[in-house]
Structures are given as C-alpha cells and as structure tokens.
Specification:
Chain lengths: 116, 107
C-alpha cells in the first residue's frame, strides 16, 4: 500500500513559538492531503483539506491564520501551528490519497504536540 | 446531531468472540471507510466501500446504502484486535467521522 510519512512524531515547544509538521507521500503523488486533530479519547476532527498548488480549504471553526497549510508539491504538505498556546496541544495527523473518491485513505503516523 | 453515529462506544470481548461494530449515517455518501487506530496513534484504513460487502482475513465490512448503515465484523477476535475503530463517510466534498468504538479483547 501507499506510504505516508509524517514528521516529527512528537514535539514540545514553548508558548508563543511556531511549529511546523510535515506530511509526505513517499511512493505516490497526492493531489489531496487532509489534516486532522485529535484530542485524547476523541475521534478525528478534520481541520482542512490541502490541494496541491492552491489554497487549503478549512473546516468551520478552524482558524486559517493559526494553522497555516502549504501544499507546495504533489508529495509534501505542511501544517504550521503559529504562536502556539497550551490549548493547541493535541495529536495532529495527516492523510493522503491519489483519488479522494475512489481510494482508501493513507495516514501518517501522527504528531503529538505539547505546548508548555 | 452527528452525521455519523457509531455503536457501541466501548466494547470488551473475550478472545475468540464474534464482534460487530455498527455505523449509521445521515448524509448521502460516495464511500464509507472503516479505520483502525492503535494505542500509539497510528491509523490504518481497513476498508473503503460503497456497496455490498468486503472481506479481509477475519474482518468483514458490509454496507446497506438504502438504510444508511454499515457494520464491521471481526471473527475469532484476538487481543491484537484491541484498538479504536472509526467509521468515516465521504460525501464527495466532505468527510465526516464517527466518534469511534474502543474495542478491548481479553485473552
């Protein structure tokens, strides 16, 4: 199956700093990547859909200036949490596929962000 | 009201038992996904289906489009099946996720 790599696996940062998370499709070109957030013992919450070469589409309630998404190539999307605060501490995970309608989702391994 | 409802929320089973997890949805869909999330956080896509039934090993997924309902069955359950199982639907424009079913299989 297709492989999606996410980096870093975990990050601890001070309040006010920015954190960048990378999501790479290693063996296929992903026209669409998705970013999710997950709080402990809760399900996935879709944050945004990232399309290569265009602006990301954010879900209602997700601040686009807070969570910057860049999908500069067909194999890389980045999520930057700007001016992170403790309430941004969460598990962030990405997924990608080649055909969003006809294909399974392939997930990265997730990034645990802890903001002190 | 959530677009995707899963039941049960939590499930404990003895090794070897037959397990069923249910998913009901209220929107028109192009596909339904069953996902498995292990304690470490990694998520694996088990099935994507838009009609009928799919089988992979001890896992079976069914969907009834008219009733807007899907089930995930695990036969001969094993402790390694312990995970959170998430139902997700794709409307073509949007994904909606169930709240997950936490399964624990006891040896």
């Amino acid at each position: 199956g297709a492989v999606v790599s996410q980096h870093p696996s975990w990050v601890i940062c001070k309040s006010g700093t920015s954190v960048k998370i990378e999501c790479r499709s290693l063996d296929f070109q992903a026209t669409t990547m998705f970013w999710y957030r997950q709080f402990p013992k809760q399900s996935l919450m879709l944050m945004a859909t990232s399309n290569e070469g265009s602006k990301a589409t954010y879900e209602q309630g997700v601040e686009k200036d807070k969570f910057l998404i860049n999908h500069a190539s067909l194999t890389l999307s980045t999520l930057t949490v700007t001016s992170a605060h403790p309430e941004d501490s969460s598990f962030y995970i990405c997924s990608a596929n080649r055909d969003r309608v006809r294909e399974k989702l392939f997930f990265g391994s997730g990034t645990q962000l802890s903001v002190l | 009201k959530n677009e995707v409802e899963q039941s049960p929320q939590n499930l404990t089973a003895q090794e070897g038992e037959f397990i069923t997890i249910n998913c009901s949805y209220s929107v028109g869909i192009s596909a339904l996904h069953w996902l498995q999330q292990h304690p470490g956080g990694g998520i694996v896509s088990l099935f994507m289906l838009s009609s009928g039934k799919k089988k992979h090993g001890r896992l079976i997924a069914t969907i009834n489009i008219q009733e807007k309902h899907s089930s995930l069955h695990i036969t001969a359950s094993h402790p390694r099946d312990s995970a959170v199982y998430i139902c997700a639907v794709n409307t073509g424009n949007q994904f909606y996720f169930g709240t997950g079913t936490s399964l624990t299989v006891i040896p």
